Structure formats: C-alpha cells, structure tokens
Amino acid sequence: MTDEAPWLVVGLGNPGREYAANRHNVGFMVADLLASRVGAKMGRAKRAQAEMAEGRLGFGGPKLVLVKPLTYMNLSGAPVVSLAQFFKVPVAHVIAVHDELDVPFGQVRVKRGGGEGGHNGLRSMSKSLASKDYARVRFGIGRPPGRQEPADFVLSDFSSVERKELDFLVDRAADVVEAVVLEGVEWAQNKYHGS
Fold first, then answer.
1. How far apart are CA 194 and CA 139, in angstroms?
2. Among the record's GO biological process terms, what is one (predicted)?
C-alpha cells in the first residue's frame, strides 16, 4: 500500500500578505511552484485549515497532495495530520519543506527524521504525527547577521541580494521534493548535496 499511497508535501509558512516574502515562508513558495508544475491551483481545503492542491508527478506518476497550513507556524501539525489521515498518507510519504537557519543561504538539503532545531512548524508536525520520521527539505537561510534575534530574522524578507537567487533556489527545492518522491531521500542527497 505504501508505494501506491499519495505523498503529502507540506510547505511551512505563515498566512497573510505581511508574511508572504519572509524567509520563514519559503515552504509556501515551494508548494506554490510545485502546484503550478503539476497543473493544479491552491484552494481552501474542506477538511483542514489549509490551502491545498492535488496532482500527479508526470503522466500516471505518484499523486501529490500539496499543503500550506493556514494556522500559523506553531500550529501547523493539526491540518497536516487531518489531511494525512483523510488521504491515508503514511508518515514515510510526508515531506516538510521549510526554512533552515543551520544551512547556509543558497543550499538546499534533505534528510529523514531527526530533531526540529527549534523550528516551531516542525515541532508541531512531529507532535501531531506522533513521529519525526518524515522527510524534510531544508531550504538554507543561514544565520542572522550580527546580534539579530533568529525569531526576527526568519520573519524578515529576503535581502535584495538574496532575492536575485531566490527563484532559482525555490526551483531547486521543488526539484529536490520531486527527487525524494521519485527516487528516495538517499538518492536526492547524493544528487543535490554536492552542489
């Protein structure tokens, strides 16, 4: 059943126009791009406080359920678990796409399981799913400059220099998600971690 099960790809972020371009919202950006790649549009989910889109990767490929929780970051787990239950998605088929302070800007990393590194969206997902064994596509935003608090840094917009590369990096993160779905975490690590 696991191989036929859909994949739940969760872009983490905060709802609202004031957060749209924040570093913390890069998961939303990747989810939107993936939706356009599979020819779907994000719409309000009936069963959870989230926007979602459904589509297939390639002709007859694996089904993707793309989700942007609308609960604010620290409550992301509730809509994730309701949609995972509704679509019968095992934890092994859940992928969280999120900003990562411990990865330099310009790098995208992937792993399965592990800690949350202080990320409230991941903490909420792990608690609601009662498991940490889902895949994470970690979009590097680097550490805040000087003495800026990490909480303020993640809720600020990308710099003008970073914005020049942002589209390319969001595109790469979407490629990494597709690689995890089609080939697995280890394959995606081998392909994308060297660059």
1. 15
2. protein quality control for misfolded or incompletely synthesized proteins
Model confidence pLDDT, tens digit, residues 2-47: 468 999 999 999 999 999 999 999 999 999 999 999 999 999 999 9
Q: Does the annotation list 134 as a binding residue?
A: no
pTM of the full structure: 0.96
Query: Does the annotation count 24 as an active-site position?
Result: yes
Inter-residue contact 34 to 174 (CB < 8 Å): yes
Per the listing, tokens 């394959």 go with 187
Q: Has 72 been labeled as part of a binding site?
A: yes
Q: What CA–CA distance (Å, rounded) separates 171 from 108?
A: 10
Question: 10 Å Cβ neighbour count for 62?
Answer: 16
Pair 64, 38: CB distance under 8 Å: yes
